[in-house]
Predict the structure.
Amino acid sequence: MKTIAFLLAVLATSATAQSAQPHPLVIAHRGASGYLPEHTLEAKAMAHALGADFIEQDLVLTKDDVPVVLHDIYIDTVTDVAKIFPGRKRADGRFYALDLTLAELKQLRVLERFNAKTGAAVYPKRFASRETPSSFQVSTLEEELQLLQGLNRSTGRAAGIYPEIKKPKWHREQGHDISRIVVPILTRYGYATKADACFLQCFELEEVRRLRGELGWHGRLIMLIEAKATGEDGTDYNRLCTAAGIKEIAPLVDGIGPPFGRIATWSTAGEPKVSELVKFAHAEKLVVHPYTVRIDELPRNCPSADALHQMLFNTAGIDGVFTDFTDVTAAWLVRAKKR
Ligand code: CA
């Protein structure tokens, strides 16, 4: 009897946790990346303080197989690697996280994203750290999980995590199985089931199948979709955006992460034309978390950040959005009485 009472109590707790999840979700894209260099622990702490429901971690491996939080397999657009380890570039002229050990990566400074050829800032109005000495560092997945779980405890406000396996096929071709390394770490930190505050995401359909199959991931899983027709790994994104494509992946995943262009486009008069993708996904009980709100880079012909939020949440009816500006998106949801 005691055991049954305990099980019921556990079920009640997890049901409460589930229903307590806000809807729609504010997902901090690479942290508060509108304000601080992307994927730094500082940017993650700020996103937490600004009220993000989920905070994103893009993941690549180091030479010694440690998952670190970086958007690209390249490190020459967000660090000073070219200055610190000039001899480490490959024949293609690029510097790769996978060619440096964690100890070496820790010697680099993380900078606001710039164009590696011209040196120009990608978002000129954002934090200008290129010429300024800074202490921003590359962080590991575990360092970030420890930071966020500490903030969840100290603030009493639980933010979830939203890790992405970056270029798994490329990693495997280089002899490194990134998903096989990441999944046990997530599990160890308490992210293992669909009741846990975690969405794992990936752009590669074959890897999504592996995660659900041989790698035994039982948490929530998001199929990312690109604007282009086909991924480097062969994933057919145009097909995934049809009713038949959505039906096919529905048993595997909990939702999709498309770019805004797959949800709507704007006429030159500033009127949005919304696609059927959200309808297709909701018919299969999949959530839709598109990317990315950037108030300094709105979609073509979209007249304002308000118009963008209006289209996403009111017209298309999405379930959450990736945003570089957690506070702007959260404030819009409050004004729209969705919070
Ligand atoms: Ca990402």
User: Anything to note?
Assistant: Confidence is low (pLDDT under 50) at residues 6-19. The chain has 13 helices and eleven strands.
